[in-house]
Amino acid sequence: EGEKIQMGINNWGDLFNFISGTGKLLKEEPEITDQDKPSEQNLESAHTQLENSIVGYDSETSFLGSESLIFKTPLKLTGGQLAALIDDELASLEKDSDIELSVAQVKLEVDSDDNNFCIITMTLSVNKDDIVKPIEDKLGAFASIITYSLGEKIYLTTVNRYQAVDGEIIVDTAYTQSDLYIGNGSNSAINDKIIDLLVSMFGAEDKNDLNADFGKIIIEAVNKAGRVSFEIDSNISYIVFDNHNNSELIQKLIVTGEIDLADYNNLSEANKTILEEVKTKANNLLATLAANELTETTTPTLAEVQNIINNIELDNTNFVLAYQNDPAAVDLTVYQSNVNALTALFL
């Protein structure tokens, strides 16, 4: 009787409906399309995108949560690609958590009229063993009836709308259709009762608080990685990452930072040393540009930096042409001086 009252169940008929409805609910799986799954194909394509977009990308280095990435081109990820990266991160953290979570989907729905907004539906799967105890603690003798026939995974879906503001995303609290549900969302009354059972398991105060906590998983995962925005193209929604500062200048300087020294083996030893130094300093400057906002009132000013980077871009073009004509006659003095001058601006 105590458990019935605790769950707001007033008679045995309601109890029967609750038990049968709960058993069905916990075995339901939401409908998930292939493009939103963390499939191996989506993981591979996400890594290809990372390699093409990030300077010096190392497949052993985490993307989500990294704070020192430099983008040579904007990184566009679909929901499935983001799901694969988040799931990969969660898998690496499993040993530090009492609850084993995995990502079943991330669905992006960018507003075609205002791409500052995106509804993100994220489905997490929870191991049956992690959810049985809180149900038993809450329902006592009724728990075994509900949990006996459960599958190995229980699906929990969070829905929030996010807004991109100054390169970071936040939950749009004005959105009234945020949701958190078990299975495919059927039987809302029982769904809310089961969600209430899970609230304490995750250390939340109520359903809305728990939904906000799940929203933070996405926010914390993406905001550190770069400047975040949303895009929709040919009805496909993307989350887009770029540098917080000076992307156009970085793209120009990357040409120097990514010089392949092996392509210039016919240079004199002295010029090889200079070219290696130029490449190293340019790479160091990429991180500096990404970390510093430049305006006409900063030190250095935006105009000063633009001018020297334009010179470096021209120096590189002249160097390549000179090398093709006669490697022995290459003079890297001006190229080296301009890279040193750019370095000096930030000292």
Description:
- There is one protein chain.
- Helices cover 49% and strands 17% of the residues.
- Residues 1-7 have low confidence and may be disordered.
- Strand 2 and strand 3 form a beta hairpin.
- Helix 3 crosses helix 4, helix 9 (247-257) runs antiparallel to helix 10 and helix 9 (247-257) packs parallel to helix 11.
- The protein has twelve helices and eight strands.
- The radius of gyration is 27 Å and the shape is elongated.
- The protein has 347 residues and is an alpha+beta fold.
- Strands 2, 3, 4, 5 and 6 form a five-stranded antiparallel sheet that branches. It has a three-stranded antiparallel sheet with strand order 1-8-7.
Task: List the defining traits of the structure above.
347 residues; five-stranded antiparallel beta sheet; three-stranded antiparallel beta sheet; alpha+beta; single chain; 12 helices
The low-confidence runs, each spanning 5 or more residues with pLDDT under 50, are 1-7
- How much helix is in the residues? 40-55%
| Residues in β-strands, percent | 15-25%
Specify the structural class: alpha+beta
Distance between the termini: 74 Å
Shape: elongated
What gyration radius follows from the Cα positions, in whole Å?
A: 27 Å
Total count of strands: 8
Mean pLDDT: 86
Helix count from the secondary structure assignment: 12
Q: What is the H/E string?
A: HHHEHEEHHEEEHHEEHHHH
Largest sheet: 5 strands, antiparallel
